[in-house]
Amino acid sequence: MLSLELSTFVHATEDEERVLQAVSNVLPERMRGSLEVYLSKNVVLGYHGNAITVMKFFIDEEVEAQEAFEHIVRRMEESDFNYFLDSLEDRFEHGRIYLRVDKQEAYLGNIRISEGDDVIRVTALLKPHLRKSEAVSRYLLSLRSKKTTQ
């Protein structure tokens, strides 16, 4: 894993601290206390003129990016992981994996895939040897097998 980016929107009706908690819950425990190190924020105006904060968390240190991505994959429920694998062709492009994690579920401590809009978007930039979907599938399966042996 070369890098990992998590991004989400904080709408005017949402509590920013709760959204930060949701993102924090997606990451390994040792990284949760230092979210600000990875954070950039930008405020934009929505269609109706409402303020929307765009939060991006960029992890460009390979070891930390790998650890965070492994954590996400290992904590997925089996049904979500199987859906992830089944839809990999749609989620993998130009050496990147795209995933959407349900923001409300993340706040509760769960990692669930969502196709909706109220999500934490995860973009993983893979190493060059992981550029074909078959190799990526094997890689993801190897991460899950580590889960059962830990």
Automatic annotation (TrEMBL):
Pfam families associated with the record: RNA_binding
Transmembrane segments: none
InterPro entries: PAB1135-like, Ribosomal_uL5_dom_sf
Protein name (database record): Exosome protein
Source organism (scientific name): Thermofilum pendens (strain DSM 2475 / Hrk 5)
